[in-house]
Design a protein that fits this description.
This is OsmC family protein. Pfam families: OsmC (PF02566). The protein is α+β, with helices and mostly antiparallel strands. The chain is built from three helices and five strands; from the N terminus they run E-E-E-H-E-E-H-H. The strands form two sheets. A three-stranded antiparallel β-sheet has the order 1-2-3, with no helix packed on it. A two-stranded antiparallel ribbon has the order 4-5. A hairpin with an 8-residue loop joins strand 1 and strand 2 (20-24).
């Protein structure tokens, strides 16, 4: 993938910001908030999707995108797709740092993606084959099921004067 544009997300957030705004691949902006049900004054306004919402949407939209590509590659030009994705299992991480709020120990255990493909009888065989194989082409689904590895790199900067907004620095 060296000749392809890398998938990136950049965020700059300060204590003055209400929402988190990410710039993806240097050209798309997404805004994230937290749900109102978070405990102890940590709740967001629920004005924008939460980070987990974006994860679920990423999985569902990747699944649909790959299914569409398979259908089009196999000459199926009449179809309708309905996709519903839901986090249906959570668990708590028992090895959770005491410094963190208790709700941050919540982990996703399972996401169900329900895909319904509607087409005409003329495309039955091609559509059926695409439904059997499409998941193998979804980079998000395959990465999630494979256990994505990531590396958190951190740094702490200390300044002597009060902080302005992130834009001023």
């Amino acid at each position: 993938m060296n000749d392809r544009e890398p998938f990136t997300a950049e965020l700059r957030v300060s204590s003055e910001d209400t929402y988190k705004t990410a710039t993806l691949r240097g050209k798309h902006e997404l805004v994230a908030d937290e749900p109102t049900w978070l405990p102890g004054g940590l709740a967001g306004h629920d004005d924008h999707p939460a980070p987990v919402d974006y994860l679920v949407m990423s999985l569902a939209s990747c699944q649909v995108s790959v299914l569409v590509q398979c259908l089009e590659r196999n000459g199926v030009d009449t179809y309708r797709i309905e996709c519903n994705a839901v986090v249906d299992e959570y668990y708590r991480d028992d090895d959770h740092p005491e410094e963190m709020p208790p709700h941050t120990a919540l982990r996703l255990g399972h996401i169900t993606v329900e895909m319904v493909l509607t087409t005409t009888a003329a495309y039955r065989d091609q559509a059926d084959q695409c439904l059997i194989t499409y998941d193998q082409g979804c980079i998000v689904g395959q990465s999630l099921s494979g256990g994505i590895d990531y590396t958190p790199l951190t740094a702490l900067e200390i300044v002597d004067s009060p902080l302005g907004t992130v834009d001023e620095q």
